[in-house]
Amino acid sequence: MIFFLSTLAIFQCYILPGLLITNKLNGDLLFKIISTVIISLLFNFFLVTFLLALKLYSKEVLYIIFLFQILILFFLYKSENFKINFNLNLFFLIKVFVFSLIIFAFYKNTGNVFYSWDAVVSYNEWAIKFSTGEYPGGMVRPYLIPKIWSMIYLFSDNSNITLFTKFTTILFPSLILLMSLDEILFYKKIRDLIKLFLFCTFFFLKKNFILTGYVDIPLVALIYCFFYFYRRQATNLSAFTLFISFTIKMSAIFLLIYFLIYKNKYLIIKLLISLAFILYFIFLYYSKLNNFFIADIFNEMGQNNNFNLFSQLQHSTKLLFNSNLIFFLIFSIFGFFINNFTRSILIIYIIPGWLYWSLLLSYDDRNFLFLIPGLIIINSIVVEKLILKFFPMTEDYFCNFEKKIFISKIFKKNSKTIFLILSLIACSTLAVNDRYIIKYDKVKKNSMIGNNLMNLKLIELVENNRLNRDNFITDFQLIFYVPALKKYINWGNFLHKDLKNLYGFDYYLIYGHSPKIREVVKEKINNKKTEIILDINGFILAGPNYL
Fold first, then answer.
1. What are the helix (H) ranges across 23-123?
2. Buried b (16+ CB within 10 A) or exposed e, 241-267
3. pLDDT at 488
4. Does residue 91 contact residue 184 with C-beta atoms inside 8 Å?
5. 415-418 long-range contacts, Cβ below 8 Å, gap at least 24?
6. pLDDT over threshold 60, residue 82
7. What is the C-alpha separation between 304 and 360, in angstroms, rounded?
8. Model confidence over 451-465: pLDDT tens digits?
9. Distance (Å, rounded) from C-alpha 290 to C-alpha 292?
């Protein structure tokens, strides 16, 4: 039942609400798919927000809303002709490449759970909290992704299973690939092919990050989606996307500034989106407005202590070099010499955003990623200009390379047939046993959260009655989310500040967040009271030498 309900929940989160509207939109299939996801995200964000405010956020209410949408969808969809081309050309090969990447990513991401810091202790925990009908306490952040995930937990009536929420992280990289593909097919420009290549390069550079469950990749996708809709002159959709990006991270403020300043058009829409942003900002931070910029920015990031402008810029530049993201930034400088569009992105969006990240958020390069779509757009235009300058016939060749090997076929899609097929697929998930899902989820968490070898050793110590909450301490936060250890250790074992008498413990798991714990362990090793049991990939487990 968990598999079945989670499947329905994913359909509700990312597809169903959008289908009610996109059927009436003009555009090709890819455009409608992208629009469907965006509209669904916007609808579900407001749905969860309102239901929480009204104290009506429950699985029963969600089921009723879901069934109501299904009925509407059934009567809305009519029979249409659907054309599929089997022509061997460059564009067909690009399609195959893009969909192969998506299928491979789906394969790699299937059956995994959250295992990275913020994905486990923040975003997923917030989602679980929302699924209980309450807002998370502590640090205030935009909550789009946790609210969407909470629907999956509430729908399935099980917040312990993270397999399905983790699976949905593939959606946003896939959305980027589909937008790139659609622009190639629609505009037939060299720049769009280059853009696809640059996004693939970005995915390769961040291959160990993009599917971890952090919200930075969804933000990248939505910012690119804004430019995608803006280019297609779908202004309403670009405004929707802009608002959704606020609900992921406040870094999207620079995108709002760009939207308001660039071109003197769409005045009414600009006023409405500005009002929406102000209201959302007040709703989110109303309790902290008096000291927002001090308390929630400088203090949170630790930048008010020994702050130095030159050292911050030096540190941020070094971080970009180490991650190879610096090349996206350096090459974009040539955008000053291309046209007003590239200059406007640089002046209004990229440069202020880069300074904001460098001075306030450069403790991690992931906070820089909201600039990646703009940088890739600029770089693709720059490279296109260079190619066409030296090889002016390239674009004609790009557009006309074609060799037909199959004739086009026309299929007739019927709403009843589609609903029957989807129903059969959904019902087939009922065959998956809940016990198997629960067991598999636990096994994955035990192996993926933290370090597998370290977890196995800790479990062994627990089973031998040598490790418990009274004799164990760590500065590694994620260990408390390992299912096999939850009964034996608790948050009281987490050293987030140097406030405890560290000498009173037998076992120490060190990851590096507290230097004092290392000093104590080193002293106990010198006194031959403790020894290193395991030293793996930055993890150190120390304990009594009789082991």
1. 29-53, 59-76, 90-109, 117-118
2. bbbbbbbbbbbbbbbbebbbebeeebe
3. 85
4. yes
5. 415/74, 415/77, 415/78, 415/79, 418/77
6. no
7. 9
8. 889 999 998 888 888
9. 6
Cβ 493 vs Cβ 475: under 8 Å: no
Q: How far is CA 466 from the centre of its chain?
A: 40
Distance, in Å, from the CA atom of 94 to the CA atom of 86, rounded to the nearest integer, reads 13
Dist CA 467 CA 64 (whole Å): 48
- The chain-wide mean pLDDT, for the chain, equals 85
286-299 pLDDT, tens digit per residue, is 655 544 444 444 44
- For the chain, the 3-state helix, strand and coil shares in percent, each to the nearest 5, are 70, 5, 25
Total-model pTM: 0.90
What does the alpha-carbon distance between residue 434 and residue 442 come to, in Å, rounded to a whole number?
13
What's phi and psi for 264, nearest 5 deg? -90, 65
C-alpha–C-alpha distance, residues 82 and 77, integer Å: 13
User: For 513, which DSSP code?
Assistant: S
Q: How far apart are CA 478 and CA 342, in angstroms?
A: 43
Helix axis angle, 235-246 to 267-285, nearest 10°: 20
536: three-class secondary structure by DSSP: strand
The continuous run of DSSP H or E covering 445 comes out as helix 434-448
> What type of residue sits at position 72?
I
Do 404 and 357 touch, CB atoms closer than 8 A?
A: no
Count, in order, helices (H) and strands (E) of the chain.
Answer: 26, 8
Three-state secondary structure of 207-219: CCCCCCCCCHHHH
pLDDT on residue 304: 43
Q: Quick one: tokens of 373?
A: 């779509």
Q: List the domain boundaries for the chain.
A: 2-399, 450-543
Q: How far apart are CA 126 and CA 115, in angstroms?
A: 15
